[in-house]
Amino acid sequence: MLYLQILANGLVLGGLYACIASGFSLVWGVLNVINILHGSFIVLGGYLAYFAYVKAGVHPFLSILIAIPAFFAIGYALQRLMINRIIAAPVLLTLTLTFGLDLMLSNGMILAFTADFKKLVLEPPLGTIAFGEVVLPIDRLAAMVLALALTGMLYLILSRSRIGRAIVAVRMDREAAALMGVDVKRIYAATFGLGAVMAGASGPLLVMIFPISPLGGPAYLGKAFVICVLGGLGSVPGAMIGGLVLGVAESFGSLWFGPEHAITLSFSLLILMLLFRPHGLLGRKGYE
Amino acid sequence: MNRALLLGAALAAGTAAAAVAHAQDVIRVGAPLPITGPLSPEAKKQQRGYDLWAETANKAGGVKVGMKRMKVEIVYVDYQSNTPRAVQSAEKLITQDNVNFLFSPFGSGATKAASSVSEKYQVPTVAATASSSQVYDQGYKYLFGTFTPNDTLTEPLSDIVGREAPGVKRVAILARNDLFPLAIAQEMDKSARKRGLSVVYFEKYAIGTLDHASALSQIKSQSPHWIFATGYTNDLILLRKQMADQRIEAPVVTMIAAPAYQDWIDGTGRLSQNVTSAAWWHPAVRYEGKDVFGSTEAYVKAFRAKYGALPDYAEASASAAGAILQLAIEKAGSIERTKVRDALSAMNEMTFWGPVKFGPNGQITSLEPPVFQIQKGKPTVIHPKSIRQGELQLGVSN
Amino acid sequence: MKRDATIAAVLFALVALLPLAGEAYWMRLGTIVLMYGVLAMSWNFIGGMAGYPSFAVAAFFGLGAYTGAVAQKFGLPMGLAWAGAGLVAMVFAVLLGIALLRLRGHYFAIASLVVAEVLRELVNAATELTGGGMGLNLPIPAMASVDAQARFFFYAMFGVAALTFAATLATTYSKLGFGLRCIQQNEAAADMLGVDTTFYKVSGFVLSGVFVGMAGAVYASWVYYIEPPDVFDVLFSVKAIVMVLLGGAGSVFGPLIGAALFLGLEELVWRNYLEVHTGVLGLMIVVLVLFLPKGLLSLSQRFGRWRPTG
């Protein structure tokens, strides 16, 4: 049935979206910083995976493991050295700062990689799998599973590890956390680092599926915005739900209103949510 | 002592005169290109084409202008893939950099926007990448284009399919919502309906769409025999891949405008097999031209020698723009803009690019665009008959 | 106020004389500077004075451009089309403002950003009316010469800029300006003190949209061919913000100074650093935010006795 296929498409896409958005949501929720670099981190991770595969035969799934420490370091350093300086400044300034940094990063990537679109073509290709009438590509399915696994890992870190608990504490009440002995500066940097990891690690997954270019960051960012608003800030389950809802909404939206309106639809959803339930489906009121 | 002074003076005067003459011996052609930004891969192609022309013309001694020969210099300006900047670049080239002639920026949209400037200043402009007739619909006299209108691509294609695949009755069209991809999709719609085919699906996708699964699922549910998709390289790589993701197969799959590019063939791998496309030129065409390159074969050879690869139609079009401009200058015997403009308008010459004759709106009308199919990773010409390299193969599968 | 007005009068008079000295290309640059001046000054109302980080400039610009273009397509003369565009932008700003200004901080920013995207796609879809992805032709202005045309549009944009500046002056020294600044300081307190925050916010938002809409319409007539991605470009919003930050948010002259300086730098970088100009722009922004968050005028606060009011 067509509807089942459309639903399946949406869910698979949604899982990927969830991974893209979870790191972004965390940084926004905890630091109150909208990290425009997030999209470009994803692209950077994708390029690294692409070149690792093409030049050295490293499978993209393996590249994820490499991406994790690399991006944590980048994110940590960036936050500690630059973003922390204006962490208390009005929203506009932090937004503009990350925007400027993003311009520099994407320009750098163009110089390094040229603006051609690159897509990782797995040899041999993974093929497709059929569940009754519904056909799904295995690479997307695998990417979705891995994306959900990464997101799940993030959730575990936040709920089980010490640093994770500290991050949640800072998010709930910064002053109280500081009073409890939490080094807020370090936590901010670690959170940003985690956000960067989620972005950089989803890059290898995405480059298997979508052609990437140094200027592709904003497209992913746009999705992340919508998902955060849909699901609620700073909440990993929220990002998951938000991602799935967006994926399915775009899928059915394309069916009912035509593919040209898919993007408009997701943004309209965003505006509606902002107007009527800004804290998202899973968020709690007051945590803006 | 006096003689030495005299000699010195003569030498100085001679050098000065030569310097002045030298400065005037150069034809400057402005080329605004999207050197940075999302369209930069296209700019690279254009640049290769223009540079090859300039180099070839200069190696042959320069362009013949009446009694003397003048070298050619291409002046590049980056408009950052931003159309308003393209317009600004055109004006800058004309008024600040004092170019004699202009090449258009990349693509139908920017070409159209910038042509308003060149028309204002009455600078002959040759457009190497604009095919949609909407570009030429403002009644301008100074704009000339090397691409024939979009229906010259869809009509022969429809003829061939109609002839060699009579079982094809249902057509699905998916177009990028952008000037050229949408315009040519509309032409395809017309061509299909004209032949009694039923268009079971015709939708547009927004620029920047990351996922086509839903649209493709809908197309699949209509069981089309012929899938026609338009967009740029990245769109079409993604579309072909997602077709395979959903196990969509059809007797005929046509994509415009990427399959001619090596990037697309590399990006789709084995999925490129049997995808059809059409373009305004192909290295396999055979023309004996009167232009500086001579024959198509000679052009391909020269391109290969300089860049180590076969030229695609975009690169060849850029070289053709230069070669055509050169022919016009030589015919006019001067670099005076109105004279060159008239020479372009009256042109009726054979070139490596094909026969060149412009219609009253400035767009070329004389080409017979080749239809080709990717067979075993190579674009193989299947039309026109005179340069056919292979037969149409039916069945695009995964 | 008198001092600001006098300085402004001199400045504007000088700018008005530019066409006598320059030829068409410089007039083009001048027109662009004036256009961005309008954008910057407009953003200043909602962003600089009221402190709401709006990214809606691109939305208003595109809306104005297409309104003017469609009006001209149906035969309306340029001047009327421009006024009409301003009117439509105003109405849209009222409706949008009422809906969005309940949001704060990041949420407001995102919502305002997204509005431009939605408008762009709506315009893209309305192919019959707007040409959709294929763009829209405007009637070609019938002018005596290239120079005459350049001068005409220079003065047209000049007019819009002068209007915007007058509005800036009037607002800064009026109750509205005072109210907006109160809202920026502490909206809840202002509300409690009896300031009608909704009315003031919406007014500020409307001011941030009406002139931008007119500028968009003038722009469309000037280039006589527009496509959705050209006029709904988020960079219009971003540049307007950076220009105001550069010059000094909330001040009377800051936006203009910022616009002129930014564009001058951009032109210089464009001419000389082909490959890295976006990177250089990014660097400029980073340096600005980290070291000069209050804009250039804050330097004069440190060194001079002249303080810009507002």
Question: Which secondary structure elements does this structure contain, and how are they paired or packed?
Answer:
The complex is a heterotrimer of chains A (288), B (398) and C (310).
Chain A: H1 2-31, H2 37-56, H3 60-81, H4 91-113, E1 128-131, E2 134-137, H5 138-160, H6 162-172, H7 174-179, H8 184-207, H9 217-231, H10 236-257, H11 262-276
Antiparallel strand pairs in A: 1-2
Chain B: H1 2-24, E1 26-33, H2 40-59, E2 63-65, E3 68-78, H3 83-95, E4 101-103, H4 107-120, E5 125-127, E6 143-145, H5 151-164, E7 170-176, H6 179-194, E8 198-205, H7 213-221, E9 226-230, H8 233-245, E10 252-256, H9 262-268, E11 275-278, H10 296-307, H11 313-332, H12 337-346, E12 348-351, E13 354-357, E14 371-375, E15 378-383
Parallel strand pairs in B: 1-3, 1-4, 4-5, 5-6, 7-8, 7-9, 9-10, 10-11
Antiparallel strand pairs in B: 2-3, 11-14, 12-13, 14-15
Chain C: H1 2-21, H2 24-49, H3 57-73, H4 78-100, H5 105-125, H6 127-130, E1 136-137, H7 146-172, H8 175-185, H9 187-192, H10 197-223, E2 225-226, H11 228-231, H12 234-247, H13 254-272, H14 277-291, H15 297-303
Antiparallel strand pairs in C: 1-2
Helix pairs in contact in C: 1-7, 2-7, 2-10, 2-12, 2-13, 3-4, 3-5, 3-10, 3-12, 4-10, 7-10, 8-10, 12-13
Overview of this structure, please?
The complex is a heterotrimer of chains A (288), B (398) and C (310). Chain A is an all-alpha fold and 288 residues long. Chain A has helices at 2-31, 37-56, 60-81, 91-113, 138-160, 162-172, 174-179, 184-207, 217-231, 236-257, 262-276; strands spanning 128-131, 134-137. Chain A has one domain (11-214). A two-stranded antiparallel sheet of chain A has the order 1-2. In chain A, a hairpin with a 2-residue loop joins strand 1 (128-131) and strand 2 (134-137). Chain A starts with a helix and ends in a 12-residue tail after the last helix. In chain A, 60% of the residues are buried. Chain B has 398 residues and is of the alpha/beta class. In chain B, the strands form three sheets. Chain B has a seven-stranded mixed beta sheet with strand order 8-7-9-10-11-14-15, with helices on both faces. A six-stranded mixed beta sheet of chain B has the order 2-3-1-4-5-6. In chain B, strands 12-13 form a two-stranded antiparallel sheet. Chain C has helices spanning 2-21, 24-49, 57-73, 78-100, 105-125, 127-130, 146-172, 175-185, 187-192, 197-223, 228-231, 234-247, 254-272, 277-291, 297-303; strands spanning 136-137, 225-226. The chains are: A mainly alpha (288), B alpha/beta (398), C mainly alpha (310). At the A-B interface, helix 1, strand 2, helix 10 and helix 11 of A face strand 8, helix 7, helix 8 and helix 9 of B.
